[in-house]
Amino acid sequence: MALFLLLVLVAVVLGIIGATADGLGYLLAVGIVVLVADVTLGVVWLIRRARRRPLR
User: Which residues, at least 6 apart from 21, have a Cβ–Cβ distance to it below 8 Å?
Assistant: First the structure.
């Protein structure tokens, strides 16, 4: 969970820097890619965790 939050924070910071700094638009793109990868990782993690619970 800490990795998920850290990657979200990195994506937000890169997005803010990329959007505000002149000529650093590639940081915005990198931030978006990191955010998409992080959300994908989070969804996969939740799906794997949900499957491990035994049915009662």
Answer: 27
